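=== RUN LOG ===
request id: a7f3
mode: sequence -> structure
chains: 1
length: 492
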Amino acid sequence: MNTGKKQVERVRILIASSHPLFAEGLRSLLVKRREPEASVVGIVSTIEEAIAALRTLNPDLIIVDYDDDRVNRDEFLARFVEGEGRLRVVLLSLKEGGSEAIVYDRRSMAASQIEDWLETWGGSETITHEISIPVEESLPRSEVSKRRDNMRHFIAAGLVVIGLMVLLILGNQRIALLPIAASRQAVPIDNLFRLQFMVIIFLFSLIVGLMIYSVIFFRRKAGDETDGPHIEGSSTLEVAWTIVPLGIVLAIAVIGSQALGRTLAADPKPLRVNVIGSQWAWRFEYPELGILSTEMILPVDKQALLILSSTDVIHSFWVPEFRVKQDALPGDAFERQLRITPDEVGEYKLRCAELCGRQHYSMESPVKVLSQEEFDAWVQANAPPPPGSEGEGANPPVGRGDKLTQQFACRSCHSVDGSALVGPTWKGLYGTEEQLANGTAILVDDAYLYESIRDPGVKITAGFQDLMPHTIAKDMTDEQIADVIEFIKSVK
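=== RESULT ===
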């Protein structure tokens, strides 16, 4: 119908290229920048298809991929130009001139860009008639349809991500990833863990959910050998996925520093406990109470200041229910501190969290959290005897020596039943003649045992290595060493 208004003739363009990226990209560019002056009526990939399209689609302009050997032939150009008075043929190369597309017009013999051609083209007042060809083969879908499809995919993918998040949150609530919390220091640490779990669940659901949706709905169809659409980068998206993760990391860092401050908060009068790690046992000294123990006994709701050290290699103090962990380093200059305030009465287990040798797996000790009344009773029962008293038992030195060998982890390397460990067995050792690594023999008497405890690296028994810590006896008095020797003498 003639509306009486002046109409601009649309340039009917045929694109000849067997490269999908070239053809689809050029069509998108023309439609986006020149609508309604330009109309892509078809895309062909061979000479035969181009000849057929010339007869049926009546194009005004043919854009030929100059770098495509399948369509860039002199015969092809000659057949198209011959007899076509108004038809123009343009050779478009993306190789010459770097990233700038150079256009060659055989009829005007001038080089220009494609937009220059279209700006000078047309000008008549006639209205072009429609071409009855499939929409998906010629004109792109409308922007409204594209936006509708994009929104549909966005909502569906979002539902997949949300569903996956719900399943993971429910699973996380049902599975106890952490043991019970038994200290005040565990509260801020568990809060930080829960926050990190939620962030991990969100990121996992977002990434995996979108991957699953894409695999299902955007997978390559059977027999499709074409390249995917060329997508340009998005500066907005790149800035967003840089700033958002950075903000999350900084927020977690702030929350983590607050949690660290709460775990390091000091009470004015804590219970001091010296924790000494040796291969492969722990001992605990209560200097204010005069108690030496192979078990860690703590009162509930009272902070304990642990002074950690090692007699040989690096060990690591870790009670999972307390959450906090700290290394025990060899040498007096490297003592570490750790503060724990137990708030749950119960029995737990201390583990070494640092690989420390061949029996690392067995380096465990009981940890008992008692009420204040029970702790006071334990202190009274384990307090050292008054000066001059030999204590209880028929043979007090042997009993004290037995306890000392357990407290100083001697039994981790020396057996009392003849079994082979990393050190010589004590069964029947006293009074025998031992062969040394240097080829000499020596009588096992009090003097030899005393020297071996104080300076274990001087005389090494044949068949064994110098593995005994040289500082193992630095905290032992001569009276305690004498008790240990009495115990060794008693092992028949």
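=== NOTES ===
The two ends are 121 Å apart (CA to CA).
Residues 11-137 form a domain with the Rossmann fold fold (CATH 3.40.50.2300).
=== END ===
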